[in-house]
Structures are given as C-alpha cells and as structure tokens.
Design a protein that fits this description.
- The protein is of the alpha/beta class and about 600 residues long.
- It folds into two domains: about 15-340, ABC transporter transmembrane region fold (Up-down Bundle); about 390-415 and about 440-604, Rossmann fold (3-Layer(aba) Sandwich).
- It is built from 20 helices and twelve strands.
- It has helices at about 15, 25-30, 40-75, 80-130, 135-140, 140-185, 185-190, 195-230, 235-240, 245-295, 300-340, 400-410, 430-435, 455-460, 465-475, 480-485, 500-515, 530-545, 580-585, 590-604, and strands spanning about 365-370, 380-385, 390-395, 415-420, 425, 440, 450, 490-495, 520-525, 550-555, 565-570, 575-580.
- The protein has a six-stranded mixed sheet with strand order 6-9-10-3-11-12, sandwiched between helices. Strands 2-1-4-5 form a four-stranded antiparallel sheet, with no helix packed on it. Strands 7-8 form a two-stranded antiparallel sheet.
- The model is unreliable at about 1-20 (pLDDT under 50).
Length: about 600
C-alpha cells in the first residue's frame, strides 16, 4: 500500500514551479541564520578590518621607500639605507600580518558557513517530518533530494568563498578611497568612474544569469529524479527494452541542464572580462594624468607609484565581486529553493476541536465522512462501525478507495467533513505520534532500511528489550531463518534489502509489527510476491499477529479473507456491499464477480 503518487519525470514539480522570492528578502533571511554565529562574525570583521588596513597602508610605505631612493639619487646625497631598511622591515611585517589575518578570516568564515548549513539541514529534516503526505505526492524524490543535498552544498560552498571576499572588499574600498583622495583629488575621481561602470554592467547581465542559474538547478532536480527512478526500476526498464527511451529522456534533460549552465557561466565570464577591460582603460588614463603631475612636481614619484598600486587594488574588490556575483546568485537561487521547502504547509495538529462521543461502543467509528484528493469528493458520506477485535476485510476494484480509507485512518490525509473516532475520541484530537503508536502496519512492499535485522525489528518499538525482539521474531516465524544466517540478528541488510528473500523481508516486517504491539492492525496483501510454501508461513504469522486485535485487511486475493468477520466491498469511495464471505457470494453482486473472476483465472 502506498499513498504516494509518482510524478512523471520531466513534469515540473510544485517545488520547482514556485516563483522565486524577492532576492533581497532571501538574502535578509539567510543573514538571519548568521545571528547564532554573531561572535564569530564579529571577530571575522575585526580581523578583516585589521588585515585590510595593513594591506592598504603597505603601498604607501613602499612609495616612501621609492621616494627615499629617488631623492638620494636625484640630490646626489646617497641613499639613506637606515631609513630604507626600516621602511622595508615595516612593509615585511605588514605583509606577514595580512597573511595571518587573511588565514584567520577564511577559517572563521568556514566555521560560520558550516554552522549555517548545519542549521538548514536540521530544519529541513525536521520540516519533512511535519509536511503532509500530499506534499510528497506533488514533488518527486529527486527534486527533494536535490534541494536537501545539492542546494545546501551549493550554499555552503558559496558562503565560504563569497562572504570573506565581501567583508574584506568593503573595508579595502573604504581604506583605499580615503588614501587616494588624500594623495590627489583628480586621480581619485577618475578612479571612481570604475564603480558606476561596473554596476551598469552588473545590471545588464544579472537578470539572464539569475534566470539561467534557477533553471539549471530545476533541471538538476529533474535529472536526479530521472536517474533515481531508472535505477530503482532497472529490471523493468530492461525487461521492456526501455534503455533507449530512458537514455533519450536523460539526454534531453541533461541537454537543458547543460544549456542553462553554459549560458549562466558564459554571461558571468563576459561580464567579468568586460569590467576588467573598462578598468584597464581607466588605469591607462590614470597613468597618463599621473605622469603629467609627476613631471610638473605636484605629486611625488613615490606617491604616484603608490597611487597606481591603489588603483589596481581599488579595482580588485570590484573585479572579484563581479566574478563572484554569479556564484552569489547561484547561492541565492539555492536558498530560495530551500526556503520554499521550509515554508511548505505543515500538517495541522488540533486540540480537542472536534466532538468526541463517549457513548461509542465500537472500537473504530467512521461517521459520515467526506474526503477527496481534489475538489471532486471520492467519499461523500462514508459511515461504518468496527467492534473490538473484529477483522474487517476491504475489497474492490482498483480506485475503489481501499487505500484511501487506510490513509485516512492513519491521518496521512485529513477528511473534509464528518469524523473518525477510536474509543470514542476523534483522531484529530489525538496527536499523530500518539495515534500511530496504537496502529501497526504490514504492507505489501516490505520496507526495510540499511542496517541490522535486529535494528529493523526494533524499529517498531525503540524501547523493546532483546528478549522482546527475539520473542517477536519467533512469533513471526522469522527466528528460524535469522539464526541460520552467518551473522544472525546482526546481519546487515543492504540498501534494497535484496541480500535476503522477499518472503524473509516480509517476515521481518511482521516481527516489527509484533514488537510494536498495536491495538489496531492494518494489513496490505503481503503474500502476492512469494512462493506457496512461504505464503503459508506468512499467513500463519499474520494469523498470530491478528489474534485479539482489531484489524483492517486490504485484500487483493480473496482466498486470504474467507475468515474475516466482515467484508466491505467498496466502489468509488462508498461501501456497496457488506457481509461475510458466504453472504456476499449469495448476493451475486460485485464481490461475487470479483471472486468468480479470480476463480476462473486460477482454474485457467
């Protein structure tokens, strides 16, 4: 049984289809995660300021050294090596301090960015536990995994690279501007022409870069989904000669991903090189004007040398910023997708908002229930009472509403009207965790996770003792095959648990249900994919599990429900027939048609 509906690969999911948030709002929200690292960031800023101030002062000192040499040669008085040596020692100390400050700044920003992404991963994981099942219906696994892995990794990478550059660049520009204006006003104003030129080019190229970066990550999600689905169903793909179709579909999405990625990187590069070209022209203009001032004696040659260095340093932060702008946009696009997931609507928890009924004598009551996956209702007025210890079998053609009924009992989806009560209490007045502790499930698809057999059984009850685990395995007839394995209960199951048989996987899930000791049991046909001998073992284990419990059995093969206390025949979300096996056969209705069709297939 599965409530999830597969979304075709290539179809834009709800997650990918959302319009991007305002860029500055996203930056502001991302900056909010830095508050927890405010001390580290403050120390980083102090380090950046100190390092940048020393970096700014270094060219001025080198210019002084040049002036000492030039004056000594020009005046024919000899070079003052004592003064020159002192200046060079100061310069060496400054460069050494800049190196230490830069190293500390980078290491601190690594810590900050890792803390931010650590918090995002935790929030994202917690969020996925709070969203309704319908959210997973609307978004492919590939899209969700891409956000959780690729987008968050993209954020951390760009935060580490970009934030340190931004901090140091702001301080560098401020310090250099102050010194340049103190040297010569005209040259400083010419240098400042770089700023509007750079921002004009950014304004021109940013929209196309951002648009294609967003598309790149959307296609990455689709590509992940296509690869995951193909690998999961590789045997089906090969059986139906679908390799060529899968390859063609992969190539199509990959081509779109290549196209958007190439365009994004291409225009980022074009923007960077155009800005560098403009800066080089301005540098030449500064050199020409500066030469005139040196010849006229209005600027010392050492100051001119320092100014040329400052003009290069002045352009460097802008050049780096333009170069990093594409990466920043990429990080923002990833942050938008992460925030889209974090802002998804959560499952609603109610607090006694719905009427209970202490007069209920039944264990489970479906009271005039109405539900639909869309605006078109599937169940319009569904009512049923189930007594304590009864086994209720649910049958019907595909799409009749069998799985829907189970999904509503588990509160995977919320009903639109009416109520579902257990022991007289509306299940919406009970927390989901408390509700599901009372309900156990054994599904047709035996889901096991990578880990030991022991841990997979204990998953039904994390507080179970070893004795309870072994007792549950024996009750499920699983102990016999487990103890014969080389590592017994410590046997590691791989990702798909295909290192044991389908029947053995199913027995482990039954043992897991035993150890959870539920009041209410939900069974989806668990024997359809096994041989006859294993089927008998599984049926025996399930009979043990059902004993003394209220149970709902979704039946695909009618031979497994002959002993049910009541059989519900569903069609289009409503009960069309009810009774035991003999009564329903005597009616000659829908149940009889299903039975006769299965009997005819078995005879054939």
């Amino acid at each position: 049984m599965s409530g999830n509906k597969k979304v075709p690969v290539g179809v834009q999911t709800a997650l990918a289809a959302k319009k991007p948030q305002n860029m500055w709002a996203t930056i502001k929200r991302l900056a909010g995660y830095m508050k927890k690292s405010s001390l580290l960031i403050a120390f980083t800023i102090i380090t950046a300021v100190a390092g940048t101030v020393m970096q700014v002062y270094s060219p001025k000192m080198l210019g002084s050294a040049t002036t000492v040499i030039f004056d000594g040669v020009r005046q024919n008085t000899g070079i003052d090596f004592n003064r020159l040596g002192t200046i060079l020692l100061i310069v060496a100390a400054l460069y050494g301090s800049v190196f230490i400050a830069t190293f500390l700044q980078q290491r601190l920003m690594v810590l900050v960015s890792q803390k931010i992404t650590y918090a995002l991963r935790n929030e994202l994981k917690a969020k996925m536990n709070k969203v309704p099942v319908s959210y997973f219906d609307k978004n492919t696994n590939g899209a969700l995994m891409s956000v959780a892995v690729n987008d968050i990794e993209n954020i951390v990478t760009n935060l580490q690279q970009s934030l340190t550059e931004l901090i140091s660049s702001v301080v560098l520009i401020a310090g250099i501007s102050w010194i340049m204006f103190s040297i010569n006003l005209t040259l400083a104003l010419v240098t400042c022409v770089m700023i509007p030129c750079g921002f004009l080019l950014m304004k021109i190229f940013t929209p196309v870069i951002k648009k294609n970066t967003k598309s790149y990550f959307k296609f990455m999600s689709e590509l992940n989904g296509q690869v995951e689905e193909t690998y999961q169903g590789i045997s089906v793909v090969k059986s139906f000669n679908g390799e060529e179709s899968a390859t063609r579909q992969f190539a199509q999405i990959n081509a779109e991903m290549y196209k958007t990625g190439w365009i994004s990187k291409f225009f980022s590069g074009v923007m960077f090189h155009l800005i560098a070209f403009v800066y080089n022209i301005i540098y030449v203009v500064i050199a020409v004007i500066g030469a005139v001032h040196v010849i006229s004696g209005t600027i010392l040659i050492g100051d001119m040398q320092a100014f040329l260095q400052y003009s290069t340093q002045f352009s460097l932060p802008f050049t780096k910023f333009m170069q990093l702008w594409g990466n920043i946009l990429s990080a923002i696009a990833s942050a938008e997708r992460v925030f889209d997931m974090l802002d998804a609507e959560e499952m609603v928890e109610y607090k006694n908002e719905f009427p209970n009924n202490d007069a209920d004598t039944a264990k489970v009551v479906f009271d005039h229930m109405k539900f639909g996956y869309t605006d078109e209702p599937l169940m319009k007025d569904f009512s049923m009472e189930v007594s304590e210890g009864q086994m209720i079998a649910i049958v019907g053609h595909t799409g009749a509403g069998k799985t829907t009924l189970i999904n509503l009992l588990e509160r995977f989806y919320e009903i639109q009207d009416g109520g579902i009560r257990i022991d007289g209490i509306d299940i919406r007045n009970t927390g989901r965790q408390a509700l599901r502790q009372r309900i156990g499930m054994v599904l047709q698809d035996a889901w096991l996770f990578s880990g030991t057999i022991y841990d997979n059984i204990r998953y039904g009850n994390e507080n179970a003792t070893k004795e309870q685990i072994y007792t549950a395995a024996k009750a499920a007839y699983a102990d016999d095959f487990i103890t014969k394995l080389p590592d017994g209960y410590s046997t590691i199951l791989n990702e798909d648990a295909d290192n044991i048989s389908q029947g053995q996987r199913q027995l482990i899930t039954i043992a897991r249900a035993f150890v959870s000791n539920p009041e209410i049991l939900i069974l989806d046909e668990a024997t359809s994919n096994v041989d006859s001998r294993t089927e008998l073992i599984i049926q025996s284990a399930m009979k043990r599990l059902l004993k003394g419990r209220t149970s709902f059995v979704v039946a695909h093969r009618l031979s497994t429900i002959y002993d049910a206390d009541r059989i519900l025949v569903m069609d289009r979300g409503d009960i069309v027939e009810t009774g035991n096996h003999k009564e329903l056969l005597a009616m000659g209705g829908v149940y009889a048609d299903i039975y006769n069709s299965q009997f005819a297939q078995a005879s054939a």
